[in-house]
UniProtKB/TrEMBL annotation:
Coiled coil (UniProt feature): none
Organism: Theropithecus gelada
SUPFAM superfamilies to which the protein is assigned, alphabetical: (Trans)glycosidases, E set domains, Glycosyl hydrolase domain
Residue ranges constituting the Glycosyl hydrolase family 13 catalytic domain according to the UniProt record: 181-527
GO cellular component: cytosol
Family assignment from sequence similarity: Belongs to the glycosyl hydrolase 13 family. GlgB subfamily.
Enzyme class: transferase
SMART domains: Aamy
Keyword Membrane: no
Active site (catalytic residues): 316, 371
Keyword terms, alphabetized: Glycogen biosynthesis, Glycosyltransferase, Phosphoprotein, Transferase
Pathway where this protein functions: Glycan biosynthesis; glycogen biosynthesis
Name the record gives this protein: 1,4-alpha-glucan-branching enzyme
GO biological process, one term: glycogen biosynthetic process
Length: 661
């Protein structure tokens, strides 16, 4: 509690400093309105940069025939530089839309460096060029949003997406392709939130969008900024909110088209020396205590909210930010000494509190999610209590548990108690996003859950015309069960990575030298689930109906489940949540007739979801017209119970039909 007070005090102090020196966080977070290059109302040009280590700063480009020194910036206090270029006499545009620019830096050691402004809004790589070019983005007609932001969803069902790999063709897909072809699928599947990866510009495609070079630029490899706005707007028209995967944990080492060495020194936006480099990621680390770094990052947060109308963020690499050791070589046991001590980077934590404060002040309905593997306490508690201010954290132990079970244990050796523990091990009032697998598990070197389950047989036996082999049968049944128990028990939100809902085969691998620049694994084969002769459609149907049932019943926003049974011998797990009774039989071969399951309430129950149904590739062993009657017969600590037939490898949801909906 004392530490929470200390953290809140540090946050308040910086917020007050921003108030005294900058007129408040509202003004402070609008850095993009003055920094960078701007056309003025009079037709002139106003430019501003922060380059504390520079000897001189100049603007050059197509507009002045690339003369490096004809437009020098004037030096201001605190390492800032500004330039005003008066309008031409004929009032024509000084720097036309789409023309190339560079900031020229003369360093203290006499070097002449050509740089892209950290505030650049659009950069492109042309032809066979290695580096990106900065293009002045100032279109005559920018996209006008037609739809308002949807209300904050009661339950969060997230479809984690990457625009570039969203088509089945071996190429980089576009914002337009995603808007026209993928958004309708997401809507149909019952997801109400999209988490967009790899949007902030990154020179290296194979970094999956995690080595950012231009923080204010939407990646041009998929299209224009206006086309991204149309994507977000179209999602909003469908009632789907859109979160940005924001990478403020580190930055690319590129200097020709990144932030590194911007002013000719190894500091500027980053810590100088060893503290400024992440050894594992080979990237630069921000100096979160620096005033101008705070302005840059907070303005970046605001830019994506205001300019593109994102509804919030998934903060990447939070563990790396929180600790000086960046989580490397650490196995977090949950001991509180691991979270409070000199190893914590309090400046980074204060930045995250400021970012969450800004997001939720500007747009109270916004959502922020922390990707933190360490389990830092109070990360999702309100800032006023000294917490981090996040709405949710990712439940990162859950996918690891499923992969461990699939890799290391026979089905009959799966420990029901261990599964339940992993799915329910979260702090009271700390909201978690549960997932069976995300993009992490799909990356080359690992495999999707479907591929762990069915592997090579997916190439030969996924046709409905081929025999239902034991491997394919097991794979299809467990795929559904793993997803439903994660969805029902694992958190207050649910996440799925695109394509995994229908058991996408193989793995993800981006074009790179090591695979001869191949796009073969950098795509999503949605046509597989559209093919009526393939079994992928069964998994897709189940995912859709599971999400739609959650929308109707709201178990993600209900209090945590009451688990009445985790039977090791029978391999049965039963729990109640949101007035529904969830029953899972993980036994590979045993079915149970008249199996007694505890419930809170008496009354008539009906099956509302059955993984064994024909449309989900099941064996149709249950009669859905059956009524199950719960009676006042105490069982497993519940006042009532009912008898039910539970076939092997089946997941069931029963609903009390006597209760008002």
């Amino acid at each position: 509690k004392n530490l929470a007070k200390v953290r809140y005090k540090q946050f308040s102090q910086i917020l007050n400093n921003i108030g005294e020196n900058e007129g408040g966080i509202d003004k402070f977070s609008r850095g993009y309105e003055s920094f960078g290059v701007h056309r003025c109302a009079d037709g002139g040009l106003y430019c501003k940069e922060w380059a504390p280590g520079a000897e001189g700063v100049f603007l050059t480009g197509d507009f002045n025939g690339w003369n490096p020194f004809s437009y020098p910036y004037k030096k201001l206090d605190y390492g800032k530089w500004e330039l005003y270029i008066p309008p031409k006499q004929n009032k024509s545009v000084l720097v036309p839309h789409g023309s190339k620019l560079k900031v020229v830096i003369t360093s203290k050691s006499g070097e002449i460096l050509y740089r892209i402004s950290p505030w650049a809004k659009y950069v492109v790589r042309e032809g066979a060029n290695v580096n990106y070019d900065w293009l002045h983005w100032d279109p005559e007609h920018s996209y006008e949003f037609k739809h308002s932001r949807p209300k904050k969803p009661r339950s969060l069902r997230i479809y984690e997406s990457h625009v570039g790999i969203s088509s089945h063709e071996g190429k980089v897909a576009s914002y337009k392709h995603f808007t026209c072809n993928v958004l309708p699928r997401i809507k149909d599947l019952g997801y109400n939130c999209i988490q967009l990866m790899a949007i902030m510009e990154h020179a290296y495609y194979a970094s999956f969008g995690y080595q950012i070079t231009s923080f204010f630029a939407a990646s041009s490899r998929y299209g224009t900024p206006e086309e991204l706005k149309e994507l977000v707007d179209t999602a909003h028209s469908m009632g789907i909110i859109v979160l940005l995967d924001v990478v403020h944990s580190h930055a690319s080492k590129n200097s020709a088209d990144g932030l590194n060495m911007f002013d000719g020194t190894d500091s500027c936006y980053f810590h100088s020396g060893p503290r400024g480099t992440h050894d594992l990621w080979d990237s630069r680390l921000f100096a979160y205590s620096s005033w101008e770094v705070l302005r840059f990052l907070l303005s970046n947060i605001r830019w994506w909210l205001e300019e593109y109308r994102f509804d919030g963020f998934r903060f990447d690499g939070v563990t790396s930010m929180l600790y000086h050791h960046h989580g490397m070589g650490q196995g977090f046991s949950g001991d509180y000494s691991e979270y409070f001590g000199l190893q914590v980077d309090e400046d980074a934590l204060t930045y995250l509190m400021l970012a969450n404060h800004l997001v939720h002040t500007l747009y109270p309905d916004s959502i922020t999610i922390a990707e933190d593997v360490s389990g830092m306490p109070a990360l999702c508690s309100p800032i006023s209590q000294g917490g981090g201010g996040f709405d949710y954290r990712l439940a990162m132990a859950i996918p690891d548990k499923w992969i461990q079970l699939l890799k290391e244990f026979k089905d009959e050796d799966w420990n029901m108690g261990d599964i339940v523990y992993t799915l329910t091990n979260r702090r009271y009032l700390e909201k978690c996003i549960a997932y069976a697998e995300s993009h992490d598990q799909a990356l080359v070197g690992d495999k999707t859950v479907a591929f762990w389950l069915m592997d090579a047989e997916m190439y030969t036996n996924m046709s409905v015309l081929s025999p239902f082999t034991p491997v394919i049968d097991r794979g299809i049944q467990l795929h559904k069960m793993i997803r439903l128990i994660t969805h029902g028990l694992g958190g207050e939100g649910y996440l799925n990575f695109m394509g995994n809902e229908f058991g996408h085969p193989e793995w993800l691998d981006f074009p790179r030298k090591g695979n001869n620049e191949s796009y073969h694994y950098a795509r999503r084969q949605f046509h597989l689930t559209d093919d009526d002769l393939l079994r992928y459609k069964f998994l897709n149907n189940f995912d859709r109906d599971m999400n739609r049932l959650e929308e109707r019943c709201g178990w993600l926003s209900a209090p945590q489940a009451y688990v009445s049974e985790k039977h090791e011998g029978n391999k049965i797990i039963a729990f109640e949540r949101a007035g529904l009774l969830f029953i899972f039989n993980f036994h590979p071969s045993k079915s149970y007739t008249d199996y007694r399951v505890g419930t809170a309430l008496p009354g008539k129950f009906k099956i509302v979801l059955d993984s064994d149904a024909a449309e989900y590739g099941g064996h149709q062993r249950l009669d859905h017209s059956t009524d199950f009657f719960s009676e006042a017969f105490e069982h497993n600590g519940r006042p009532c119970s009912l008898l039910v037939y539970i076939p092997s490898r089946v997941a069931l949801i029963l609903q009390n039909v006597d209760l008002p909906n």
